[in-house]
Structure formats: C-alpha cells, structure tokens
Amino acid sequence: MASHRRPKQPSRTRVTVFTAAAAAAVALSAQSGAQAAPAKPKIDEVKSKVDELHHEAEEATEQANLADERRGKLQKEVGQLQDKVARGQQELNALRDQIGSVASAQYRSGGIDPALQLFLSADPDTYLDKASAIDQLSAQQADVLTSIQAKQRTLAQQRTEATTKLADLEDVRKTLGAKKKLYQGKLAEAQKLLNTLTAAEKAKMAAEERAKEQRASRDAGERLDLGKEVPANGFGAAALAAADTRVGMPYASGHEGPSSFDCSGLTQWAYGKAGVDLSRVTYTQQNDGTKIGRSQLKPGDLVFFNGLSHVGLYAGNNTILHAPKPGANVRYESMNYMGTFQFGVRIGG
Questions:
Q1: d(CA 335, CA 315)
Q2: What are phi and psi of 278, to 5 degrees?
Q3: φ and ψ of 242, to 5 deg
Q4: Closest C-alpha among 341, 345, 349 to residue 287
Q5: pLDDT tens figures, 62-111
Q6: Residues 146, 128: Cα–Cα separation, whole Å
Q7: pLDDT of residue 347
Q8: pLDDT at residue 33 above 50?
C-alpha cells in the first residue's frame, strides 16, 4: 500500500520572506505609478503657458489674415486677367472672321490671293515675320493680319500671367490653411491646459481676468486726459473715439467688427469709422502711415508690439486701447504690460 503522509508545511521563516517580498513588490509598483503620473501644474503655471499660447495663436492669426488678404487680391487679379483673355479672344475671333470674309470674297471672284491662302494655313507669327509676305497683301489685309498677330501675342502673355497667378493663389490657399490650422492648434492646446484646472481654479482665473479689465479701464479713465495730450490729428481722434465704443467687446481671431475683433481688425474698423481705409493686418498696417518713436506718440497713433504680431491705438499717458488676446475683451491697458514695443505709426500725416 502507498504511504499517506501529510504534506510538509512551509516554515514560518519562508512565509515571512514571501510576505516581505510581496509587500516590497506592492510598494515598488505604487512608487512606479507615482513616478508615471506627472505632478499637476499649478494655476500660475497654467495661466502663464496659456498666455504664451494665446500670443502664438495671435501671431498665427495675423499671418493667416495676411494670407487671406493676399488671396483676395490674387482672386481679383486672376478674374480681371481672365476677363481680358475672354475679351481678347472675342476680338481675335472677329479679326479672323474679317480676314476669312476677305478670303471668301476672293474665292468667289476667281481665287484666293496666294499670300492670304498661305497665311490662313500657317502660323501668323511665323508667316508675318516674312516681310516679303506682307508686301504681297493689300494694305487693308496687312493691317488686319498684323492686328491678329499682335492680339495673339497679347493673349499668350495674358494667359501666361493668369497661369502664374493661379499657381500663386494655390500656394496662398495652402499657406492660409496651414496658418489657420496652427492658430486653431494653439487655442486647442491652451484649452487642454485649462481643462486640467478644477472648476474653482477656472472661476478664479476668470475673476482675475475680469478684475484686470475693470482695473485697466478704471485706471485708464483716471489717467486719460486728451486735453493734456493732443491727438495726432482729426483722423486719430475720430479713430480713438470709435474704438472707445467697442470697449468690452470680445476678441475673436479673424474678426473685424462690429461686435468682435482681433487686434488689427479693431484698428482697421476704428480708422474706417474715421474715414481712413487701413489695410487688414499688422504686417501691412505698419506701412499705412509714417513710422515714429515712442517719445513722439500721440493719441490715435497705431502702436506695434512683439515683432509686429500685435497692434493697438495709443490713448495717451502710456496707455493703449486694443483687442488683447483670445478670452479677453477690448480694453485700455498700460504699455508696460505689452511686451516689446516696436514703433508707432501716424495715420494721415
């Protein structure tokens, strides 16, 4: 018979070792998990990064606006060229009909002039380069054929120009799409950061932003006294007064009023109310007037910051009126908080 023995029980020492090993494994696993989870960013860090992303989004917005402005001009130029080509083709067809009528009349009267027959069966550019051929035609026929030649050359040039501009237009469309994707990506990244905050932290940030706007407007109202700082001119005074009516309106990328604006959209709208046609973006608005230094600024002048990515209206006493950034409203603000000052531009002399 087989022997029935009780299985040997593990010693107390072995149990203790196994227990310690398991505990150590759990501890190491917990420690590894703690290392894998990054520390939650503080509210000040989030705010700083969001502000940076909003600045980058604004820069991309201005570049997109520039591409959009260029696209509009190219579309207009292409349309005009295509109209010219269409009209030129009609004129060319009429000239060909005219010379065809001459050939038909000659045929009915006994035969086509050999020179005219050769022209109708050959390339006019090649044929008319031969002076001897023109000598064989009547003066009227030669004039018509010379007109056909000139019209064909003009049409060829216009078609080439239109083709080039269409290629440029396609490049600009691609640039515009890329810039829009860039600023939308920056805004999405900023929103993702904001979503890491608790509801209380978001409310605190919003309250701080509102308080900043209220404080900036209140301080500006206390500081501004246009009786002491004379506006640059009537245009500047009218533009500043118009922009003042937009205080509290939201910033929106690509918008130019009347109820939401980006930075250059506000300045364009304000000067439009003053009867001045400004170009659309910061990169071109800098050329719409005379560049001046900071010490020369007067109320109504345009002021540019941060590599031309931002523009506002100088309001006097080191203060500007501008559309600041996504998530903020049109407001007065000290130039001390605006980053790197580039230069001012006086509109209208």
A1: 10
A2: -80, 155
A3: -65, -45
A4: 345
A5: 888 878 888 888 888 888 888 888 888 888 788 777 666 555 544 444 55
A6: 7
A7: 96
A8: no
Report pLDDT digits (tens) over 247-290.
999 999 889 989 999 999 999 999 999 999 999 999 999 999 99
Could you give the percent of the chain with pLDDT greater than 90?
A: 25
How many angstroms separate the Cα of 136 from the Cα of each of 114, 121, 170?
9, 16, 49
Residue ranges in the chain assigned as alpha helix (H): 12-36, 43-108, 114-120, 124-128, 131-135, 139-194, 199-223, 234-244, 263-273, 282-285
Residue from 141, 110, 140 nearest 127 by CA: 141
For tokens 């990054």, what's the residue? 38
For strand 310-316 and strand 319-322, is the pairing parallel, antiparallel, or unpaired? Answer: antiparallel
Q: Are 323 and 262 in contact (CB under 8 A)?
A: yes
Tokens linked to 93: 């067809």
Q: Strand 341-346 and strand 331-334: pairing?
A: unpaired
Which residues form the catalytic set? 263, 310, 322
**Could you tell me if 345 and 291 are in contact, meaning their C-beta atoms sit under 8 angstroms apart?**
yes
CA-based R_g, the chain, Å: 37
Element (H, E) at 322: strand 319-322
Q: b vs e for 218-251, b when ≥16 Cβ sit within 10 Å of the residue's Cβ?
A: eebeeebebeebebbbebbbbbbbbbbebeebeb
Residue 248 in contact with residue 332, Cβ under 8 Å?
no
Helix (H, G, I), strand (E, B) or coil at 333: strand
What is the DSSP-derived secondary structure letter of residue 337?
Answer: G
Q: Report the candidate in 243, 48, 74 with the shortest Cα–Cα distance to residue 162.
A: 74
Q: Give the CA-trace dihedral at 336, 332, 50, 193, to 10 degrees.
A: 150
